[in-house]
Amino acid sequence: MPQRHIFTRFVRDFKEFTLKQVDFCHYTVPLNTVNSNGFVFPSEYVGQYGIYDAVKHVYNSSSNLKGLVQGDHILANTKYFSADMETAINQIRDKFRNEHNIDKSAYSIFVSPGNEKAEVEFCLENLRKGVKEFLLKYSNPTSLSHKALPLENNFVTVLSVHEGSEGAALVKEYLANN
């Protein structure tokens, strides 16, 4: 009998009686759940590892969710996943702001130009222009809005690079010369 595989975003909707039509599933969103009978549909996570890594990082950074990271998989509550993620992300955000003395009401512009020299060379000037344009448009005195906040203490730009990488060295050199 030929194998009947399917490619989908979620595995959680497949039950044991689905095996008659589909016998294996490749899925892209890392939510593979056990149904009420304890059945786990035969499947393999095949895509969007960036999402998996991001969710794993958020879970590992949260004291409440850390225990749900188990080896090569994450235990996620499909009903409360978005609420759990939002709570954990807010905790990470608050911790980052506290560690770097960034006011809770300040607008943060997060920029990740890359860690490879070629990545930084490719995008840094465009990122600089984009941040400058944003600040000119939304901060006082250059904004046309009467509600615009002063630039000082209300806007923070965060440049994210791996310390010691070629990209970090190039970013430091660029900032020193501009």
Write the SSE topology.
Elements: E1 5-8, E2 24-27, E3 43-45, H1 49-61, E4 69-70, E5 73-74, H2 81-99, E6 107-111, H3 117-138, E7 139-140, E8 149-150, E9 155-159, H4 166-177
Parallel strand pairs: 1-2, 2-3, 6-9, 7-8
Antiparallel strand pairs: 4-5
Helix content: 25-40%
Number of domains: 3
Instruction: Let me know the average pLDDT.
Output: 82
Query: Main beta sheet: strand number and arrangement?
Result: 3 strands, parallel
Q: Classify the beta-strand content into a percent band.
A: 15-25%
Descriptive report:
- By secondary structure, the chain is an alpha/beta fold.
- The protein folds into 3 domains: 1-47, no CATH class; 49-101, no CATH class; 107-177, no CATH class.
- The chain contains 4 helices and 9 strands; from the N terminus they run βββαββαβαβββα.
- The protein has helices spanning 49-61, 81-99, 117-138, 166-177, and strands spanning 5-8, 24-27, 43-45, 69-70, 73-74, 107-111, 139-140, 149-150, 155-159.
- Strands 1-2-3 form a 3-stranded parallel sheet, with no helix packed on it. It has a two-stranded antiparallel ribbon with strand order 4-5. It has a two-stranded parallel sheet with strand order 6-9.
- Strand 4 (69-70) and strand 5 form a beta hairpin.
- The chain is elongated, with a radius of gyration of 22 Å.
- The N and C termini lie far apart (66 Å).
Q: What's the short version?
A:
The protein is an alpha/beta fold. It is built from four helices and nine strands; from the N terminus they run βββαββαβαβββα. The longest helix is centred in the C-terminal third of the chain and has 22 residues, at 117-138.
